Amino acid sequence: MVHFYKTATILERNDGLVQQVYPVNIESLHALLGNIPRSTGILPEHVIAMGRHDGRDLIIKYVPPKRRNLITTESNKPKPISIVTPPLVWSGCGTVYRIYALNSTAWPNENTMLYHSPFPNVYSNGTICWGDTGNALQAANRTIDTMLDRFFTSVFASHLNNSRSRSNPGSVVKFWETITNDDAYPLGDLLPANIRLIELLEGEGYANTR
After folding, report:
1. Distance CA 175, CA 183 (A)
2. pTM of the model
3. Residue 125 to residues 16, 79, 134, 155, 206: CA-CA distances in angstroms?
4. Were 93 and a residue from 23, 58, 78, 134 both cysteine, which residue would form a disulfide, CB within 3.0 to 4.6 Å?
5. Which is it for strands 155-156 and 66-74: parallel, antiparallel or unpaired?
6. How far apart are alpha carbons 74 and 169 in whole angstroms?
7. What are residue 194's DSSP bridge partners?
8. In 75-184, beta strands by DSSP E
9. What per-residue confidence (pLDDT) applies to 66?
């Protein structure tokens, strides 16, 4: 195990029952690590960034506007609604996933302000309430899109349905019913989430799921 300190880099290893500690030359360590083969593999489309946080993969991707057939419940019966969803930011770290909206279709930068995604079943910090859809998969190249599909094909209940729309703060689903024929989501209806993209990139908020 390598420990990095401000004044030294230390290698710790166990030789049988004996624990030994050595100072390490940082240039030698850099040269050694530079020869280790590494690759991200094939990345999903529209990936904004990838990294590691608390020993877990962190993946953030841009989701462009798209007409989607969403399922809601009314009197405990499934009800389909077709709307064009706004541009979104979808991220996963470990088994925690977060979703936000953007008020522009432009590719975001670190200082881009994020907005509450206009969907029920999402906590105020962007994390997902999966309900009875099953355990979330570990975020990785091969699973990030799978979990996004699971989110959009789940049934959107009335849980966390409020404070997602300027026009109808009591129910974003009621707002959906007014935009079924729109070619684009009215971005002016989105509410700010008081968070910038850089905070997702730095891994903030993934330990707290609410």
Report:
1. 15
2. 0.81
3. 47, 27, 21, 20, 9
4. 58
5. parallel
6. 18
7. none
8. 77-85, 88-93, 96-101, 113-116, 155-156
9. 97
pLDDT at 28: 73
Cα(90)–Cα(147) distance, integer angstroms: 10
Tokens standing for residue 176: 């959906």
Alpha-carbon gap, residue 8 to 20, rounded angstroms: 16
Distances (CA, A) of 126 to 91, 120, 134, 148, 166: 9, 11, 19, 13, 18
d(CA 57, CA 75): 40
Strand 96-101 vs strand 77-85: parallel, antiparallel, or unpaired?
unpaired
Contact 102, 87 (CB under 8 A): yes
| CA-closest candidate to residue 86, choices 67, 113, 60 | 67
Three-state secondary structure of 30-84: HHHHHCCCCCCCCCCCCEEEEEEECCEEEEEEEECCEEEEEEEEECCEEEEEEEE
**Confidence (pLDDT) at 6:** 64
DSSP class of 127: B
* Residues with pLDDT less than 70, the chain: 6, 15-18, 29, 32-33, 35-40, 75, 205, 207-210
Only one residue has tokens 């979330």, namely 136
